[in-house]
Amino acid sequence: MAGFEQVCFDASALINLLGSGVPGEILSAAGSRSVATTQVCREVKRYPFDGEQSSGPLIPILEGGFLEVLDLDDAAIDLFLGLVGAKPPDDLDDGEASTIAYGVTRAAVVVIDERKGRRICRERFPQLQILCSLDLFRFYSEVCGDIGKFRGALAGAIKRARMHVPPSYRQWVLDMLGCELSRVGQRE
Amino acid sequence: MSVLDSISPKEIGSRLKSARSSARRTQEEAAVLIGVARTTIVAIEAGERQVRPAELTKLAEFYGVSVNSLLRESSVHIDLVPQFRRSVSARDDEDSSLGAVRLLQKLAARSVELERALGKKWGAVSFPEYRIPRVGWQEQAEDLALEVRQRLGLGLGPIADIFVLLEMDMGVRLFVHRIPSRISGLFAFHEEVGACMLVNSVHPIERRIWTCAHELAHFLTNRHAADISWVDRQERNIEERFADRFAASFLMPASFVRFRFGEVYESANKFSPKDLVLLARTFSVSVEATARRLEQLGLVPNGTYESLVEQGFSVRAANELLGLAGSPPENFIPRLTWLVLEAYRKSLLTEGQVAEILDADRLKVRKMISSLLGDSEVEEEAG
């Protein structure tokens, strides 16, 4: 991620990183300022994760300085409201909308896995750079010296967070995990 | 131009008021939060002053709702609140009632909206409406239950799945959602939407099944009078007593109950608490409801259930002793869930919106998507 000043995470992407078990390391490997809006953090904290409240795994990465929580400024709020209040089916949920609003107004790279969110970004904000969770895992694979640890992180995100693996990344994940993918599986 | 400029202040004010009530927050608390006078909150909620963007985001967070849900423009406008006025005003917890009514309204509107977006049709089934007689209503309830069973080809045995029955065979829009625990369920009929039922997901399945049967009676006898079913039902008018009798007969037909009771009694020369538990499990209703039914049919003395309770009878202990799981298995997936997942597959809804509509956490949503949509979920756009 060299060259990115800051990266803003959507709730879905954050949940995937949390599932890896090493979210701080993945965020550190990115080498950028990692941020999330208060709306996103609220969504992650509100939903349980492996039977626990997500505020558990979220706290270490916040307190460790790996992730910053930011409020939207006035310009971003206007755009945010426009995105959540768009005519259905183009309206977005708070987390996605706030992530895009932040990215557009602060020229940040956004990490969004949601197909609907990515579609709206492409249609309305073609200049916005969009990454997905697996892009971060790919970056992590390049700096993580321990292949076993990396495989564990990737498998963790798939199994614990049920991270979706898009077709474009299927072969790469298979190469990384090998036969472990069938054991990890997308479904139980 | 802000999106708030295109939304009626009255509409957004009404939604904010509803959200505040559901969150059990006061106007004073809201005023302190956004740094205004209480009268300003009053004016906002009355639509006399438009809420400002920053205020809206703070209030949404405070009330525990998404801004998306507050601003969302639905193409389907259903107002069920007037139908429930009598039911709501009859209780002292109007906030709980109104919250549940608005939820039913929201879910019904969502269903219709998703159907239109997905090009799906809802097959409402025509069922006549029956009149409840003032005299002989108990027999009428029994007869009606049997008539409906016959019409649906159910025979006299236990109903396999009343939820599927209501949705597929009776055209009822059925929603299972978390609502205040004092409310068992709601029923309303709307010309545009049809019959709608909301049952409480936090209740045990036996109670939900009973609630469905009870509300079904309202659909069949008084469908234009919306109903809220309370756990501690205070009003026992004839419509409510009829609905309970109908539910008992619909779920536990008299002839089948007598047959099964007779088999057990003749074999063991008694009908024990263990037999009561097994019979309840057969019908997927509560032990208490089963005992009441046996009393109703004169098979056991009145007060049998109270007597058991006084003697320390525990349903949980009995289930464990009999090797029964805590509750009957649940396999019902509401039609709304299918619509929502299909909309997600077509990128009409985000994961977060799916979670909000289904009142489920994200991981549960991901599990649902994975197991119900399978590989069809991975239709990907280019790039």
Short description:
The complex is a heterodimer of chains A (188) and B (383). Chain A has helices spanning 11-20, 23-30, 38-46, 55-63, 74-84, 94-106, 115-124, 133-143, 147-159, 167-177, 180-184, and strands at 6-9, 33-37, 48-49, 52-53, 68-70, 109-111, 130-131.
Topology (elements, then pairings):
The complex is a heterodimer of chains A (188) and B (383).
Chain A: E1 6-9, H1 11-20, H2 23-30, E2 33-37, H3 38-46, E3 48-49, E4 52-53, H4 55-63, E5 68-70, H5 74-84, H6 94-106, E6 109-111, H7 115-124, E7 130-131, H8 133-143, H9 147-159, H10 167-177, H11 180-184
Parallel strand pairs in A: 1-2, 1-6, 2-5, 6-7
Antiparallel strand pairs in A: 3-4
Helix pairs in contact in A: 1-3, 1-9, 2-8, 3-6, 5-6
Chain B: H1 9-22, H2 27-34, H3 38-45, H4 53-63, H5 67-71, H6 85-89, H7 94-118, H8 137-152, H9 162-169, E1 173-177, E2 183-190, E3 194-200, H10 205-221, E4 227-230, H11 238-251, H12 254-268, H13 273-283, H14 287-296, H15 304-310, H16 315-322, H17 335-345, H18 351-358, H19 362-373
Helix pairs in contact in B: 1-4, 1-7, 2-3, 7-17, 8-11, 10-11, 13-14, 17-18, 17-19, 18-19
Protein architecture, described:
The complex is a heterodimer of chains A (188) and B (383). By secondary structure, chain A is an alpha/beta fold. Chain A is 59% helix and 11% strand. In chain A, α1 (11-20) packs across α9 (147-159) and α5 packs across α6 (94-106). The model of chain A has no long low-confidence stretch (mean pLDDT 87). In chain B, α2 (27-34) crosses α3 (38-45), α7 packs across α17 (335-345) and α13 (273-283) packs across α14 (287-296). A four-stranded mixed beta sheet of chain B has the order 1-3-2-4, sandwiched between helices. Chain B is elongated. Chain B is built from 19 helices and four strands. Chain B has helices at residues 9-22, 27-34, 38-45, 53-63, 67-71, 85-89, 94-118, 137-152, 162-169, 205-221, 238-251, 254-268, 273-283, 287-296, 304-310, 315-322, 335-345, 351-358, 362-373; strands at residues 173-177, 183-190, 194-200, 227-230. At the A-B interface, α1, α3, β3, α5 and α6 of A face α4, α5, α18 and α19 of B.
